[in-house]
Amino acid sequence: MLLDRRTFTAGSAALLSGCATVGTRHVSDCTPLAPVDADPSRLIRAVAGLRPYRRSGFVVRREQLGDKSLVHNYGHGGGGITLSWGSSKLATELGLPGHSGPVAVLGAGIMGLSTARLVQDAGFPVTIYTAALPPDTTSNIAGGQFHPFAVFRERFATPEFKAQFTRALDYSWRRFQIMVGDDYGIRWLPTYVETDSPEVKLLESFPPVNRMLRPAEHPFPLGSVLRYDTMYVETGRYLRQMLRDVQVAGGRIEVRKLATASDIAALPESLVFNCTGLGSRDLFGDQELQPVRGQLAILEPQPEVRYAYTGSSGYMFPRADGILLGGTFEYDVWDTTPEPATIQRIIAAHQRFFAQFRCRA
Ligand SMILES: Cc1cc2nc3c(=O)[nH]c(=O)nc-3n(C[C@H](O)[C@H](O)[C@H](O)COP(=O)(O)OP(=O)(O)OC[C@H]3O[C@@H](n4cnc5c(N)ncnc54)[C@H](O)[C@@H]3O)c2cc1C
To answer: Can you tell me which atom of ligand 1 is nearest the CA of 132?
Structure first.
């Protein structure tokens, strides 16, 4: 199923296909942008990843496991990059007060690495126990838009969870801002959305800008376009740097899969943070946790494309390591092999869309 990152409005697809192309002409009622050249020959790789989704939202909770304190931090669905710092902050606030001695972190995706850094910042030695390291994590596959998309379903979320969600989002929003730059691969971009209403304000300052555009303010062949601004994380570069940060601060890394609770009980540390993402389903028997597969077509980079787009053709996030085209949300699909037919469909939908720009830079 190809979906945009919001619920798209009825009739938007018809609008898209019924619009006349003005080609490369600059017209006075149109602000040009560089279109993506979504020719299939520009495909450099295709990937599929599994979002660790729980309809009632992520789990940040402390429990006792024999003589160990165990703090969970998993299940962030399609928003784990966005929520990483804030959710990990909540987890460390539950685990660290009153603790002394070394700390174990399970998992080396974005949640494990962020948790490890916060534990180190608080002055504790850390060992990360993990089945896989970057680049072989779900976090590496993520598009990296700062937006907590597909994290929970409203009707299943408790008020307690929603309070955690807002606190996590707020901390992450501020933390990522102070990391913007080439070293971590984070940058601000305007994001254009095919929709007829602004984003819901999740924080007082998020998302900024957030206004409907007049047709003269964009080149898209659409009747109704929103612009908001947010940050984009080049996840490969970011996770490489985070792993280095953990090691430079003295963190140990042990590559091993923990299969059962008794494996955890045998660890030398008395405080353990569980950041195993989808792995928590088997390790802790959380049956609410399910995969939501996303497939991405990645095209050769185009540095001149300095905006993101989401709409009925899917989404486009431009990064230094490639133009990401995506937008599939496939519930309960465990296979991480991208399907050639789906990848071709994603590219074709974007090719049609970008060919219809009313004017171009
Ligand atoms: C296609 C796609 C696009 C996405 N786009 C975005 C986006 O734009 N913005 C956004 O915010 N989020 C996005 N996400 C969601 C985001 O990728 C996830 O929410 C996030 O990566 C989850 O991070 P994590 O650290 O919990 O899990 P993971 O990255 O999966 O890391 C889990 C770690 O735990 C280890 N592990 C698992 N089981 C065990 C075990 N039994 N023993 C030891 N170690 C174990 C793994 O080896 C791994 O190191 C996207 C996801 C996908 C698939």
So the answer is: 47
